[in-house]
Amino acid sequence: MKDGANRFQSKFKTAAFVLIVGLIVQATTLHWATAASFLGFISAGAVLVLIGIAIYLFAIVSA
Amino acid sequence: MNPWFDFSVDFPGAGVASLQIQAVIAIISITIVLIGLLAVRPSLTAAHGGKVLAFIAFFILPIVATVLGAAIHLEQSTSTTFCLSCHVMEAHGKSLYIDDKSYLPASHFQNNRIPRDQACYTCHTDYTLFGDISAKMRGLKHVYVYYFKDIPARLTLYEPFKNRECLHCHANARSFEESIPHNMMKEQLVSNQTSCLTCHNKIHNVQQVDKLKMWKGPAP
Fold first, then answer.
1. B15: nearest CB among A27, A33, A49
2. Which residues contact B87 (CB under 8 A, 6 or more apart)?
3. Which residue ranges of chain B lie beneath pLDDT 50?
4. Which of B33, B113, B121, B185 could form a disulfide bond with B78, CB atoms 3.0-4.6 angstroms apart?
């Protein structure tokens, strides 16, 4: 039981970390209207946010 | 770099209102704070309210932030600053300042016939039902080629420039309607049989742009 809770917390924290990094990347890229910032938003920010959401969903489903 | 051609600086009124950007950044900040709080104190998610809060912070808000952020980036992709942020487009941007009114893009840009903050987009989008989307898809392709493929030595349009894009503004304009040459060939122009560029053939001329006299108009 405790192991399960630990696993959940571990995934939960991983999801939080990935989401925060992704959101920071997204917020940063919004400051520029350039092709590079658009690419950064899509290829790093959005991808990290989607991975973070997937980890979170996996954590709550497998809890 | 000549400050007049510094397109890294936004034109007045360029792009998306900063208020929208600030609103998205506010949503992102709130999301980060909530996620951080829940990550530091996972015990908060034990209660029903905590579970709902976690779902909002980890699922709803990040999706909202991503969708709104993408919308802002797409809107910003119509700006002159965005198009000219690729080094390869520098000469095209410079050509907007050619001091010769016979140069079509330059005279449109310098006389505010097109919005300066959306100069490229105004002429190079398709004025059709899905023109906006197809212009943005082309833009995405440009970004892909710019970063991951070999950039062609000579940049060309995917297809010949259509009169529709000119007539979107000029059709029914007094200056266009009262012009004798335009009247004589109106049918051909409307049906795209004769291109506007047949007569108005001084376009960006990027090969020669460094040798031409430049207009030192108001700095962007």
1. A33
2. none
3. 1-4, 11-15, 220
4. B121
pLDDT in tens, A16-50: 999 999 999 999 999 988 888 998 999 999 999 99
Q: Which of A38, A51, A55 to mutate to test binding with chain B, by most B CBs within 10 Å of its CB?
A: A38
Inform me whether the C-beta atom of residue B120 falls under 8 Å from chain A C-beta atoms: no
**Cα–Cα distance, B88 to B91 (Å, whole number):** 7
Residue B79 carries which side chain, given as an amino acid letter? Answer: S
B52 interfaces chain A, CB cutoff of 8 Å: no
What is the spatial distance between Cα A40 and Cα A50, in angstroms, rounded to a whole number? 14
| Contact at CB, B32 and A20, closer than 8 angstroms | yes
What is residue A40's predicted lDDT score, i.e. its pLDDT?
A: 93
- Decide if B116 contacts B80 (C-beta within 8 A): yes
């899509």: which residue's tokens?
A42
Tell me whether 0.90 is exceeded by the ipTM: yes
B9, B97 Cβ separation under 8 angstroms: no
Long-range contacts of B174-179 (CB under 8 A, 24+ apart): none
Position B19 scores a pLDDT of 87
Share of chain A above pLDDT 70, in %: 97
Question: What's this model's pTM, rounded to 2 decimal places?
Answer: 0.80
DSSP per position, B111-176: TTSS-GGGHHHHHSS--STTHHHHHHHHHHHHHHHHHHSPPPSS---SSPPPHHHHHHHHTT-HHH
